[in-house]
From TrEMBL:
Protein name (record): Carboxyl-terminal processing protease
Transmembrane segments: 13-35
Biological source species: Sorangium cellulosum
Region (Disordered): 44-84
Domain (PDZ): residue spans on this chain: 342-418
SUPFAM superfamilies listed in its UniProt record: Carboxypeptidase regulatory domain-like (SSF49464), PDZ domain-like (SSF50156), Starch-binding domain-like (SSF49452)
Organism placement in taxonomy: Bacteria, Pseudomonadati, Myxococcota, Polyangia, Polyangiales
Biased composition (Pro residues): 53-79
Length: 443
């Protein structure tokens, strides 16, 4: 009995402990549910960095990087005119009325070797390296086209200008017409920069009872003509300005009766006469308008050259296959009907000189800048005086070379050995006066 009671008491004690434990758990839960809850204290929530947006701010320039200085942009490389670009340069050449002109020659002013010829429809195609050049078109029947900048990817149009015409007459000293004569372009200065200047020296024979001539298809510019006839040395026209599409009229050239040069050609060593030597005028004109026939020496070495200038200095050239060619300068008939000059020739040696003259030893040529020294003979007076290729000759003994044709400049520089000539030479923008002693020059 006592054992049963003891067991019952223990059971009730465990039950009470269990109920007490449950009460301890349930009561706080009921209190938490029934009582008002305070606001929770929580740290602010952080958004991920990639989605965080800054607050709006007024626009401002971006901050500078003080430690970094950007270099200036490099200039674009120059146009490579030698390397091929993407496409050739195409275009068309038209006449003044807008018609295509076949056979016209197109070239770059900066690179004359870059050329093309227009086809039957006037179309041309320049190589790719012509891109950006100033192109010029020329044709014998028209004036040159104005220089035009051409480019790839477009249809370039070059329009030729109307050619000019010169009309005139050739008469003798009394005003009577010279019926047969040789006419040539002595010099030409184009009016358009870059226009062709290769017309100088062109010549033609003219036969007309009235002594009249007409020269058409002339590129606009300034011309000087030269005429010559049998017994009448070359004479020049005044400068004539040719305008596209117009005719310059009443140009007159007066051919005066020439003098006769006589003499004997001798061997310099043996004093024997030289037969069949040729004697002819030399550098009397810059063109080919010299109708004065050369003279041949007879068995006694005698010659007679008709039609030399009656006044003013001139030169003759004497040739023979066995002798050194000799140029004799400074001859002057001084208004007389004749003059005499006996000339000695030296025989040719093995590997020696082939030409002998008396002057300063300089070769002259016409250029857009004026009369230019194209070369000097080594050891000659010009070389010893410091003249060099490329120098521009502006004065000869005080006479401006712009007033003298090239042939007159040559004659004035030639002269007897020991005589002196003063020349004004322009080099690098400076003009220097130089006095030169003439001497015999061999080459």
């Amino acid at each position: 009995m006592a054992g049963g009671q003891t067991g019952g008491a223990q059971g009730r004690a465990w039950l009470s402990a269990a109920l007490l434990s449950v009460a301890l758990l349930v009561v706080p839960l009921l209190v938490w549910l029934l009582l008002p809850r305070p606001a929770p204290v929580m740290p602010p929530r952080r958004e991920p960095a990639q989605t965080q947006l800054p607050p709006p701010m007024p626009e401002a320039p971006p901050p500078r990087e003080p430690a970094v200085v950007a270099p200036p942009p490099a200039p674009p490389p120059p146009r490579d005119t030698t390397a091929a670009s993407a496409a050739p340069i195409r275009g068309v050449v038209l006449d003044p009325d807008g018609r295509p002109i076949p056979g016209a020659v197109v070239s770059c002013r900066e690179e004359p070797s870059v050329t093309a010829t227009a086809d039957a429809e006037g179309r041309f195609e320049l190589p790719a390296e012509a891109d950006g050049c100033d192109a010029i078109a020329s044709h014998p029947q028209f004036g040159d086209a104005e220089p035009t900048r051409v480019a790839a990817g477009r249809d370039n149009v070059l329009r030729l200008t109307s050619a000019g015409v010169i009309e005139g007459e050739v008469v003798d000293e009394s005003g009577r017409p010279v019926e047969e004569f040789l006419l040539a372009i002595e010099s030409f200065s184009p009016s358009a920069p870059g226009a062709r200047a290769s017309v100088s020296g062109r010549a033609r024979k003219v036969s007309d009872p009235a002594g009249a001539f007409m020269w058409d298809e002339l590129v606009p510019g300034r011309y000087v003509f030269t005429a010559s006839a049998a017994g009448r040395p070359p004479a020049r026209s005044p400068p004539v300005d040719v305008v596209a599409g117009r005719t310059a009229r009443r140009v007159r050239i007066v051919l005066r009766q020439g003098a006769t040069l006589r003499g004997t050609i001798l061997d310099a060593d043996s004093r024997a006469p030289v037969a069949e030597a040729q004697v002819e005028l030399d550098a009397v004109t810059s063109s080919s308008a010299n109708a004065i026939s050369l003279a041949l020496t007879d068995a006694g070495g005698n010659y007679e050259l008709q039609g030399v200038p009656a006044s003013g200095p001139f030169s003759v050239r004497v040739r023979h296959e066995q002798y050194v060619t000799k140029i004799v300068p400074g001859l002057d008939a001084r208004g007389a009907g004749s003059l005499r000059a006996d000339i000695e020739l030296r025989q040719l040696g093995d590997g020696g000189s082939r030409e002998e003259l008396s002057g300063i030893g300089a070769v002259l040529s016409a250029s857009p800048s004026g009369v230019m020294i194209a070369g000097v003979i080594d050891g000659g007076p010009a070389a010893l005086a410091g003249l060099a290729q490329g120098d521009v000759l502006v004065r000869i003994d005080g006479q401006e070379t712009t007033d003298l044709p090239l042939s007159d400049c040559i004659q004035r520089l030639r002269g007897a050995p020991g005589t002196r000539v003063t020349v004004g030479v322009e080099r690098d923008g400076r003009v220097v006066e130089v006095t030169i002693r003439r001497d015999v020059v061999v080459r």
